[in-house]
Amino acid sequence: MTPAVLGIDAGTTAVKAVLYSLEGETLAAGHRSVAVVRTADGGAESDIDLVWEAVVGAVRQALSQARSAGPDVVAVGVTGQGDGAWLVDAEGRPVRPAALWLDGRGADRVTAWQHDGRDAAVVSATGSASFPGTLPVLLDVFADTEPDVLARAAHHLNCKDAVRQRLTGEIATDPSEASRTYLDPATLAYSDDMIDALGHRRFAHLLAPVRAPHERGGALTASAADELGLRAGVPVAVGLVDSAACPVGLGALSDQDGWVVLGTTATVAVNRVDRAAADSGIGILIPTGRGTQVLEALSSMVGTPNLDWARDTLGLSDRGWSELERLARTAPDGSGGVVYLPYGSPSGERAPFVDAAASASWVGTTVATTPAQLLRSVFEGLAFSVAECLDLLDAGDRVPVCGGGARSDLMCQLLADVSQRTIVRTADPEVGARGAATLAVVAAGLAPDLEAAVRVFPVGSVEFAPRASPALSAARDVFARVRAALRPEWPALRALARTAANADGVGAPTPDESLIAAERVDAAAPAAHLDATVVDVPAPERTPA
């Protein structure tokens, strides 16, 4: 049988499972969708049991595709979406659905923390600002709204940690995940000062032990192996959150290496030698598990879902993305004077600025504006936003990109032109799974360290060189001025939406990040995928399970 490494990437709306040979060749891949439930009170949740079912289905699909190669899985790596609250009891059973990173129930609480000094305590400890989908904010919310449910929780396990617990039965996390809770990236220990400043000592028992990401985080139990169709006893790596696993999959390990992930969020990050070297002021700091190194990330709340929303809004849902990209190319640079602000999250925005009231909009339209101009303006708006993040982080002249949106030639070329950087698109679309598998190679003792493992798993690329475009430069300037002019009115627009929702007795219609996660894209759909299931339900009445 052919030795193989399994990489699992549990994203917001889809789970991917990829089998690699020990030389880094992709042998097979599986995919399963995961439903995201939107509630009228701003919640965004997934059923943890259904996430596990998606993992099982994706792994079995990959194994079925690779049967002719006779794969013998010798190591397993897991990554997944970050933040949120994944609460389980002492036996590892969910006490409630997982509240996801895009949950907006704590938006008002974040605003209050920013005024009363608690957010300053979060920034002081973690280097990252609060936002509604982080664990401390969600625990604060649930303490008020679901105290009985919270009392039954024994552990918080981030998404990939919850999956690994199902695989191995072990409770653990890594510095990248823990830094999004209460961990100080400088000391790699949970911050007592932050816990006490928030009044969260009562939640400290929920925090998992922190271990190095490339360590062995247990082995497949007999029951998990039986469900997956694998051998019991296969080592499983501790792993990293997806935003930290992607650069491993890209081979970006050195200080000052930067990259972009164009997916559900548009994330821009640069490795820093330590916390002190990260100075954007609004970035998320995530320890990589490699000494003092941290990645400084600017991660927007919505990336490619802007494109999906625009496609649906323009009545083009029946067209594939190859056709839509050709349509967008018929409009000139600058989109005929139309500007799009890509801030479509119901939870506001966190990069390249932080504003819980941020809203998306088209500006500059007339009755003569064409669908091609509107569509192209969305591509350009995303490129402008990502370029701002690249500038804020002082990223280098060559930037690797990955994610569903990176499959679009137009998106990559616009980003090169707007940022005046060479954009390097990786050949492997599943760099999160590749990064997880790379860590598993080390955990299983198949490579002495991560640098050696990256050399085992090389990945090809295509380059997009920057071109001069006065029209794009002018449009970028207008983009920034339009945003500055509209920003004072964003809170009032949010208030109007809440008023309308209260009058109707239902949640206000909003663009949903989880509709198109850009985590699985077929060849004809370079910018996004349509496999997510999103259900709007009333705000739940919680009762003990």
From TrEMBL:
Residues 5-249 form the Carbohydrate kinase FGGY N-terminal domain. Its EC number is 2.7.1.-. Residues 260-444 form the Carbohydrate kinase FGGY C-terminal domain. InterPro entries: ATPase_NBD (IPR043129), Carb_kinase_FGGY (IPR000577), FGGY_C (IPR018485), FGGY_Carb_Kinase (IPR050406), FGGY_N (IPR018484). Pfam families: FGGY_C, FGGY_N. Keywords: Carbohydrate metabolism, Kinase, Transferase, Xylose metabolism. One of its GO terms (molecular function) is kinase activity. Belongs to the FGGY kinase family. This is FGGY-family carbohydrate kinase.
